[in-house]
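Entry for fructose -6-phosphate complex. Fields follow.
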Amino acid sequence: MCGIVAYVGPRDPAPILLEGLRRLEYRGYDSAGVAVQNGAGIAVSKLAGRVSKLKELLSREPLCGTAGIAHTRWATHGAPTQRNAHPHIDCTGRIALVHNGIIENADVLRAALERAGHRFSTETDTETLAHLIEEAPGATLERRVIAALEHVHGTYGLAVISADEPGKVVAARLGSPVLLGIGEDELFVASDASAVLEHTRSVVYLDDGDIAVLTPTEYHVIDSESHVQLRSVADIAWDLTAIELGGYPHFMLKEICEQPDTVQSTLRGRLLFDDGRARLNGLNLAPEDCADVRRIVIVACGTSWHAGLVGRHIIEELARIPVQVEYASEYRYRRQVGVPGTLTVAISQSGETADTLEAMRAARAAGSQVVGVVNVVGSTIARESDGGIYLHAGPEIGVASTKAFTSQIVALALLGLYLARERGMSLERGQELVCRLAQLPQLVRRALELAPVVEALARGHASQHNFLYLGRGVSFPVALEGALKLKEISYIHAEGYPAAEMKHGPIALIDQSMPVVFVAPKDEVYPKVLSNMREVKARGGRIIAVTSDGNGDLTALADHQLRVPATAPLLSPVLTTIPQQLLAYHIAVLRGCDVDRPRNLAKSVTVE
Ligand code: F6R
C-alpha cells in the first residue's frame, strides 16, 4: 500500500521521482505528490488522482532542486484529497516527509501537539510525524527523526528531508518495507525495488528499527542508539522487462500469459526425476523432521488463501498430514493453542501483507516452526520465516493476482511431494508426480490457447450483474478464485460456492439471467458435479463449464465449454484457473474498467 521514493544526487530529482512513482503506482493510486529541496526551502507539489496528472502539473510548474521525496497514496486516515496527499510538512515548511504505514496513536499525539501550538492542515496520521520532528531535539535531522519516533506507536516506512540540511535524506523502517538503492554518486530510497531498478540493481533492505542517512556519496544505517549497523548489499534478480508492459495492453494480461514461464521458474531445479522427490533447499526442514510434522496450519489472505485451500487438498492427499487453512486476519486474534509438531505455512505473494505477517508471528510465539511461500525476495515474511519456498514468478504488477496464484499451487505441490516422500510415498508415485509437475508449463501454454474463445464469451457476458462460481473438492477454491477475480476488476457481484452447497440456499438465485461457472475437470467428483449442473439447468441457469480433456461432451448441459488439458486431478487448479482469469480480464476490459488499478484496491496490503 502506498509507494515511497526518494533521491539524493547530482541530477534533478523531480523526473526521477515521477518515474519512480509511475513504477510504484500499483501499490496505491488515489493521490500523489513530490517535495524537493530547492535551495531556498522545500517546494511541494501534490494532488488527488494519478501520477500522470502530477506529471502534467510538474511540466507546467516544474520543481528543481538537489534532493527530493515522493509518494503515491492508498488512503487510510483521511479522504484521498489534495490536502491529505503526501508529502506532509511541519509548521515552518522546512521539514517534509512521506510515510507508509499507520501511526496508531496519531490522535493522542495530535492533541498534544495542537496544545503545544502546532497547526495541522490535514486529516492524516502522517502529519503528526512532521510536527513531532519539528518539535524534537537534536543537532541533525537523523537525531530529530530518532527522537520523534520514540513517541510513535504503529508502523512506518519513512523518507524525510529538511531545508536546513540540503543534500540529505533520512529514511526509517518499522513494519513497512524500505530499501536503499545504491547508485554511483547518487542514492535512492524506495518501498519497492521496481522504483530504482532503472538506475541501479544494488539494494540494501532496511530492517525494522533501522534509520538510514543518505547523502549523494555516502549512506549509513544506524539504530535508535546511533550504533552503526551493517546491512549487506543485495542484487535485484530481475530486469526492467519484468516491470514493463512489453507490448501488452495491461500487466494483468501480460502476467496471465507469462504463466507457462512462471510455473517453469517455480519448478526449476526442484524436480528430482530419478528419486521422485522435490528439492527444496531453502525450506530448512530436514528430511528426518518431516516425520515429526503432525499438523500444518496455512495462514494467508485473499488469493493466497485460495491457494492455501488448494494446498490443503494436495498435502493431505499426498503426505497424509491434517491441514488447517486460516484467514490470517482472523487467526492472529484467536487464542493460539500450541500443538507440538505444528508447521505453519505463511503464503504471500508480496511477503508484506500485515495480517499474514502477524499471523505467522503469533504461530511462532505459540511454538510453531514457520515457513513462507513467498514471491518477493527479501520481503519481511521471507526474512522472518525459518525457511521457505520462493515462487520465482517475477514481479507481479497487476493488482489482481494471477501468476502468483498458479506458482503458489505449484510450490505447495512441491511441499506436498517433499513431505510425502519422507513419510512413505512410494518411489513410483513420486516419480509419476514429478513427471506430471514437469508437464505443467506446456499444459498451461495449451490452456492459454483458449484466449480467443474466452474473449468471445466475455462479449456475451459483460453486461451481467451477477455470477455464480461452483466447484467441488480441489476445484472449490478455484471457483472462489474465479469469483474474486471477476468482482475485484469488473465490479460484477460474483460468489464462489462448493457446488453441492448450492442446494442449501444459493439455488434460489438461479434463473435465466444467472450465469453459473462450473469448475469441472476430470476427477473423482466429476459425476457429482454433473448432477449439480443438471440442478442448475433444470432451473434455467446458464452454464459455463470449465472442464478438461477426457470428460465427455457437455453440450446437452452447458451453454459454453472451456476445455483445458487433462492433468493429475490435484494439479488441475493450475489449468482450470486460466480461463477464469481470462474471462474476468476480458469482461473488465469490455466494461471499461481500469484492470491493473481497480478502484479501492492496492497491491500489498500492509495495514490491518
Ligand atoms: C486478489 C489479490 C489479493 C491478495 C491478498 C494477499 O487478486 O491479489 O487478494 O492475494 O491481498 O496478498 P499477498 O499474497 O501479497 O499476501
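NOTE: The chain has 18 helices and 27 strands.
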